[in-house]
Amino acid sequence: MAGVANPSILSPPTVLSSQKPTASRCLPSLRPFSSSAYPSLALLNLHLHPLAKPCLSIIPRKLDAPIIRPEASDVAAAEAYLAADEAASDSAVATASPQPKIKTGKAALPLKRDRTRSKRFLEIQKLRENKKEYDVPTAISLLKGAANTKFVESAEAHFRLNIDPKYNDQQLRATVNLPKGTGQTIKVAVLSQGERIDEAKNAGADIVGGEELIEQIKGGFMDFDKLIASPDMMPKVASLGKLLGPRGLMPNPKAGTVTTDISQAIQEFKKGKVEYRVDKTGIVHLAFGQVNFTDEGLIVNLMAAVRSVETNKPSGAKGVYWKSAHICSSMGPSVRLNIREMLDYKPPEV
């Protein structure tokens, strides 16, 4: 037995180093923790586990080695330093002000009270009182006096009605023939086939076509102001809804742009037929001429628009139909109309 050393005569470090731990005594789940991060947790799990035994050799301490213990003052100083550092970090987080959220879109626009008007607008705004109601002739003269830009402005009417367009019986969409015209050149396109193509050309249509014109529109061609279609072309025009609908160019029977009488529709739009509809807030926006018209011409067009809105009153409208009425130029302030005088006013003969 010369090859085997007697453990009893070996020194303790030699005995411990010769006895290697077996796999069953070392648990794979007890991986050593980082001593710098979790020193107490590693020792706690190692000693409390029922099957845990030291997997590394333990070298006993020399008996004559002195035990080094930290001074109580050093421990207290370290604890005080850590507590002060933690308190400072907590206070810094608590007192840090949150970053303001960056506004985009309409929210980024200045509020109405913070907006500034131009000197031109502030001067012409003094021509009329803010909340005073005027009769039709006086309002038309104020509208023309406020239009002092370098281009010819349009005359606009804005009627607030007591209707809610989300209900089917309170929707308003119609057309009106302005006796004095709109003052603008209207470019009319016609979608038809057969003999009606020659009829549209003779009536003065600017663009006439069939399936080839539909393909051009799908490719992005939009060089027209009104699009008139015959009823037999509507199944083919339906594919253009996503392109023409948002631009207000989709042919519609209520707007008079889907008809069998192509020549009459072309002449009416050339002379000054205007389509209008109520928006989601119950307001009708309508252009009834230009500021270079005579006072009588603007009055006639305005009263034609008022009569059309009154005649096409929705069946579901309850109570007071007219809430307010204003007219203005494109770049000028609005002038409030007296509704009762407006409805009773008789315009001069055309």
From TrEMBL:
InterPro entries: Ribosom_uL1_bac-type (IPR005878), Ribosomal_uL1-like (IPR023674), Ribosomal_uL1/biogenesis (IPR028364), Ribosomal_uL1_3-a/b-sand (IPR016095), Ribosomal_uL1_CS (IPR023673). HAMAP family: Ribosomal_uL1_B. Belongs to the universal ribosomal protein uL1 family. It comes from the Eukaryota. GO terms for molecular function: rRNA binding; structural constituent of ribosome. This is Ribosomal protein. The keyword GTP-binding does not apply. NCBIfam families: rplA_bact. The lineage of its organism: Eukaryota, Viridiplantae, Streptophyta, Embryophyta, Tracheophyta. Coiled coil: none annotated. Keywords: Ribonucleoprotein, Ribosomal protein, RNA-binding, rRNA-binding. It comes from Musa balbisiana. GO terms for biological process: translation. GO terms for cellular component: large ribosomal subunit.
